[in-house]
Amino acid sequence: MALDDVRNRIDTIDTELLRLLNERAEMVHEVGEIKKANGLEFYAPEREESLLTKLAERNEQMGGKLPEQSVRAIYREIMSAALALETDFKIAYLGPAGTWTHQAAISKFGNSVDYLPQTNFADVFDAVARGKALYGVVPIENSTEGAVSHTLDLFADSPLKICAQVMLTIENNLIANIERDQITKLYSHPQVFGQCREWIHRNFPAADLVEVSSTTRAAELAAADPHGAALAGALAAELYGLSIVESSIQDSTTNTTRFLVLGRKTCPATGNDRTSIMFAVKDRPGSLYDALKPFNEFNINMSKIESRPSKKRNWEYFFFVDIKGHCTDPKLVTALEELSEHCSFIKILGSYPDTMRPE
Ligand SMILES: O=C(O)C(=O)C[C@]1(C(=O)O)C=C[C@@H](O)C=C1
Known about the structure:
The protein is an alpha/beta fold. It has helices at residues 3-38, 45-61, 68-86, 100-109, 121-129, 149-155, 190-195, 197-203, 215-223, 234-239, 287-297, 330-340; strands spanning 90-94, 114-118, 135-142, 146-147, 161-169, 173-176, 185-188, 208-211, 228-232, 243-246, 256-263, 273-281, 302-309, 317-324, 343-353. Strands 1, 2, 3, 4, 5 and 11 form a 6-stranded mixed β-sheet that branches. Strands 8-7-9-6-10 form a 5-stranded mixed β-sheet. Strands 13-14-12-15 form a 4-stranded antiparallel β-sheet, sandwiched between helices. It folds into 4 domains: 3-85, Chorismate Mutase Domain, subunit A, CATH 1.20.59.10; 90-169 and 257-262, 3-Layer(aba) Sandwich (D-Maltodextrin-Binding Protein, domain 2), CATH 3.40.190; 173-246, 3-Layer(aba) Sandwich (D-Maltodextrin-Binding Protein, domain 2), CATH 3.40.190.10; 267-353, ACT domain (Alpha-Beta Plaits, 2-Layer Sandwich). β13 (302-309) and β14 (317-324) form a beta hairpin. The chain is globular and about 80 Å long. The structure holds prephenic acid. Prephenic acid is lined by residues 28, 31, 43-44, 47-48, 51, 79, 82-83, 86. It is found in: Cytoplasm. Keywords: Amino-acid biosynthesis, Aromatic amino acid biosynthesis, Cytoplasm, Isomerase, Lyase, Multifunctional enzyme, Phenylalanine biosynthesis. Its EC number is 4.2.1.51, 5.4.99.5. This is Bifunctional chorismate mutase/prephenate dehydratase.
């Protein structure tokens, strides 16, 4: 076929696709009206999960040319447009624009919704609690650096629930607008310095390390410093017109950060869920051991445990535990009841799809 003929064929397909997308948008609008009338959540992570899984399966069955990742990316944007049609959809995130949290939020909610950058973790929680944003996105743990303790601490006094998680592969780069041999100062977020510790030791052992509040701020400062460079993502480099001097400098090739989506309600069960809880145990010997025993008894997989000072009383700790399953599963209900007997405080932070696939 001649080039023009193929392009004409593509034009016809695109017109048909557009007609179908608008037909879908009509349906989505109807879903939105039903949700409004019934006070339901507009964002439905469980439905998105099952839809994306089904589409990936169908694509494979039909021997589709598109890789699964592309199908998911295309539908991410279709659903983003759907959410924007259903309501005034705002997402608060740890800003400024260009941070890894911003990228995680976009990878979950797409480009059609509005994003509200916040200056710190508390403001993200606050924006959602006060209804300035429908959802918030915060980092919770990194595969090499561990827990983000700021986020954990904020759950103690928050009414918010976790409704989804986002896994993002983190690629840090050395970015600057000067030559490599002119660099004497490195700007970045402390977590990123931690993720690139060995690389810094090998490449810039004498450089001054300046810790700042975000990788975007690091890029901004590096752009104005004749001897400075930043360790940050590609989006931050683009925002401040910096070049990537060296890409992918993190010590671990599988450097991944897990982010949480916070909202007012948790997510319904999908069959593959994770539940996050926090609790404080009574002050007596063996209480933590006793508290965790029901998980063993009921064969519930515990994937994570962290502890943080409660900040309410000296030497009292909050434990943050993630378990496999949904908080409405009968065996989880019983195990959590048993656990609560050993606790001076317990809170279910939420149940949500346990997708470990990086976006
Ligand atoms: O099915 C729904 O609940 C919708 O709101 C529609 C839709 C979609 O585009 O398919 C959009 C957003 C939701 O998060 C999930 C699915």
